[in-house]
Amino acid sequence: MNLDEFKGVWVFIEQRDRGVAPVSLELLGAGRALADKRGVELAGILIGHNVKDLTNTLFQYGADKVYVYDAPIFSQYRTEPYMHAVVEACRKYKPEIMLYGATSTGKDLASAVATDLATGLTADCTMLDVDPETGLLEASRPAFGGNIMATILCKKHRPQMATVRPKVMKALAPEPGRRGQVVEEQITLTEDEVRTKVLEVVRETTKRPRLDEADIIVAGGKGLKDAEGFQLCYKLAEVLGASVGASRDAVEAGWIDHHHQIGQTGVTVTPKIYFAIGISGAIQHVVGMQNSELIIAINNDPNAPIFQTCHYGIVGDAFEVVPALIAAFKEA
Ligand code: FAD
């Protein structure tokens, strides 16, 4: 592999409901800084159906160029056609660095692309930089339960790829009127060749933001006793305009859907405020929420491990503390 052939920083643009996902705008901000350091172009790769009108937004947020794959085959996210598009584009244009949001779509796509291109992928990054001497991407992420930061290099393969946690990087202020180049592409794959079909899309009926984009999260655990007790989380969330999350034990008890599970085998979140109610603070939970700006724990066991992670801890019975908080917030 001739590494010198690979140039430019690319961002996979995630879109839904006719808008660009906030994490993709954040990655354009991070990608802009990397591209400027390398003295190369910043491009977005936008895949979907009827999505061309999103390109202007991408230019305003820092992209110089956008590769667009716009066809009915891309109307719902499916691994195969999306992977096919990204792999074809990477083989044709040879980007040096490729970034994805660490969302369920980004993680799924990036790992499939990495396998097909036989290149490396650093997952769940929280810092990105380029080494001024070697020009290599330095992709850093918390490791060993957040006790160290691991910086991972991809020395021999290209593109160098990373998924990046939402809400860690900063989007640039949009520059109205900023323009760039649109490159329209087509893939050779046909619908008959795709092995998966989307039969139905069931939308969650909630007005609350997605967990990975929420500013405030109220998360509940097994300490809330049963499904009725877990409703306390919804009541507190209602007052605060927050989203509701859960530990794995609460999910496994059937009190809330798996999409709300936070932790190693669930979502990673970084809200401004995180309430952990009746959650013990097992490491598998903590790795998914420890980067929250402010963590408030409510637990009746003063020795619960969550008190090692939180900024404020309330030792008490959730069934007394949470109603008192709700009443206080309502008054405020
Ligand atoms: P518990 O550990 O049972 O804690 C309940 C807490 O509630 C206790 O601290 C108790 O003191 C407190 N409590 C009880 N009554 C009250 C009351 N009235 N008021 C206030 N507090 C009260 N877990 C996750 O959360 N996310 C993951 O992604 C995840 N992935 C995992 C992956 C693997 C491979 C493994 C092995 C485990 C994983 N787990 C995960 C499970 C994890 O190890 C814990 O078992 C789980 O997080 C515990 O959930 P919990 O804190 O709700 O329950």
Number of helices: 9
Shape: globular
Radius of gyration: 21 Å
Small molecules bound: flavin-adenine dinucleotide
Low-confidence stretches: none
Quote the beta fraction. Answer: 15-25%
The separation of the N and C termini measures 62 Å
Mean pLDDT reading: 94
Domain Electron transfer flavoprotein alpha/beta-subunit N-terminal: 9-198
Cofactor: FAD
Pfam families: ETF, ETF_alpha
Binding site for FAD: 247-248, 261-265, 278-285, 299
Task: Give an overview of the whole structure.
The chain is of the alpha/beta class. The protein contains 9 helices and 17 strands. The chain has a 7-stranded parallel β-sheet with strand order 7-11-6-1-4-5-12, sandwiched between helices. The chain has a 5-stranded parallel β-sheet with strand order 14-13-15-16-17. Strands 8-9-10 form a 3-stranded antiparallel β-sheet. Strand 2 and strand 3 (19-20) form a beta hairpin. It binds flavin-adenine dinucleotide. Residues 221-223, 247-250, 261-266, 278-280, 282, 284-285, 288, 298-301, 304, 317-319 line the site of flavin-adenine dinucleotide.
